[in-house]
Amino acid sequence: MLIKGGWECAVSKILGIWRRALKQNASMFSFYATVRCVLKVLKREGTVVPAPNFSASGDAAVLDKAIKVKGVDEKTIIDILVKRSNEQRQQIKEAYQQSSGKPLEAALKNALKGDLEDVVLALLKTPAQYDAQQLKLAMKGIGTDEDTLIEILASRNNRELLDIKKAYKEDYKKDLEDDVRSDTSGDFRAVLLEILKASRTEVVCDQLIDSDARALYEAGEGRKGKDCAMFIEILATRSFPHLRQGLLDPSPAQQPLLLSSATQMLFYSFILHFFPHIVKCTGSRPAFFAEKLNASMKGKGTRKNILTRIMVSRSEIDMKQIKEEYKKNYGKSLYMDILDDTKGDYEKILLALCGDDS
């Protein structure tokens, strides 16, 4: 018999039972944390959702008319693209190609300009294609945008990383790992290459926590100097709940092993110094992106590349949670800051991606 409220309600009830059981058996903590992590993945909190009664051919025809009308109907273009999921946009692209004989991207690129064009073209890419493009741009020309590299790679799961590598290879005819290897160096390069193996665990394991703690001790205090390779392996291959609950914020059962020495502080200092983005993702991914958004609009000028990238890439995933963290941490809604910091059609499309001012 189904429990009233659906599967989410049922799982919530189960988690409640396990939470109470924690008082009797601490080893159940890992199971509870793992299920909670899975729930967060399954329950996406995006502001952009699939449109009901969707017709790819119908939307393609409406877009074609909006593109060809005198002066271009930007409002209709924004309304169509923002109120469709990425999967639906891919179907619209196919329908437009079939009906007009040319790519929708090319038609919109000719019709639009400036910041609106950038956002629209970003929305037409698959998430993996867009991430691949942003990574390519981060390594293009003189110098490397390390913040963008680690922002994207540290915040994507294994499946997303594999999709990004595939898209990168298809679009740029090179392996992403090869470009990262040639464009970065040292411990930073080592962590990125380890992350790109897409082998991060997605559960919390008590036994692994214990072995990691011992390995960190041997790599840190147990030898002269520190073995950064071990730090990097653990940092790049363990799940964020594992890093947070097991090593950076251990339960009472693990504290004696870690906190009897300075190993935990050494590990934390290492990643905080070299990879603050990973530390922040470990704590709260929505809070991490809220901070990035706030920084993009803080002070004189707007870092539009960051603002656009996050608004597009998180709109179907966790934008609602990002908005909550933004309001909580900065005392003002994300919607209002976008309203104050941008203008014109760029403002309109970002506000549409943001959702209402709640």
TrEMBL record:
Tree of life domain: Eukaryota
Record-level GO cellular component terms: cytoplasm; nucleus; plasma membrane; vesicle membrane
Source species: Takifugu rubripes (Japanese pufferfish)
The name this protein goes by in its record: Annexin
A Pfam family per the record: Annexin
Domain-level remarks: A pair of annexin repeats may form one binding site for calcium and phospholipid.
InterPro entries: Annexin, Annexin_repeat, Annexin_repeat_CS, Annexin_sf
Family membership noted in the UniProt record: Belongs to the annexin family.
PROSITE patterns noted in UniProt: ANNEXIN_1, ANNEXIN_2
GO MF, one annotated term: calcium-dependent phospholipid binding
Keywords from the named record: Annexin, Calcium, Calcium/phospholipid-binding, Repeat
GO BP, sorted A to Z: cellular response to glucocorticoid stimulus; phagocytosis; signal transduction
Listed SUPFAM superfamilies: Annexin
